[in-house]
Amino acid sequence: MLKDKKCIDFHAHPVTDSFRKAMVDLGIDPIEEDGFPLPKWSAEEHLAFMEEAGIDYSVLSAPVPHIYNGDAPKARKAAREINDGVAETVRRRSDRFGFVGLVPLLGLILLGFQMVYTSGYNSGYLDACVDAKKGVEPMYVLIETES
After folding, report:
1. pTM (predicted TM-score)
2. In whole angstroms, what is the distance from residue 64 CA to residue 35 CA?
3. Element (H, E) at 97
4. For residues 137 and 81, what is the distance between their CA atoms, to the nearest angstrom?
5. 3-class SS shares of the chain: helix, strand, coil, % to 5
6. Residues 86/50/58/105 CA torsion (nearest 10 deg)
7. Alpha helix stretches (DSSP H) within the chain
């Protein structure tokens, strides 16, 4: 799928309607959390930007702020809705888009995404907890103690 691509953007954040809705449903204020409002985004505008910039393929991943606000069931529901929204964009243009699935730490379920991006407690990324020398073992310990 990607072997003929020349330029891959691995840092693209789709601010979809489902992400905007999740922020409201979770009571998260992007300006309060991160100091700036959510930008406007559409797949069509992103594709136009890619053409202009010479980008062949974009791997989409969730923007900030992160979705875990202390309410695990709401965060899981939000993650599913956000992933479904981004997956639909990717299905329509799989020749130009892929995505990294968003999963809140306390609801960690691998769903066959290209990768899994996790966030929890608004205190950092899961990969910050994974010791490169020990592999993923600390992740499992963290999940067992947090869930």
Report:
1. 0.68
2. 11
3. strand 97-99
4. 29
5. 45, 15, 45
6. -50
7. 17-25, 30-34, 43-53, 72-92, 137-146
